[in-house]
Design goal:
mainly alpha; 0% strand; rod-shaped
Amino acid sequence: VRNVRRDGMDQVKKGKTNGMPEDDQKFWEQAVQELTDKMIGKVDETLEAKQAEIMQV
């Protein structure tokens, strides 16, 4: 998840050097971060479910 976030942020930074407006850059940085947070939440939920499943056995 972190590697994908880093790749996304790198693309946003490349856009800035290619003339992307600063407002757009901030928007996309926030979008990448929100998506990362959402995916981390899903990973955590899956981990908790798996731990509960293992503890039942």
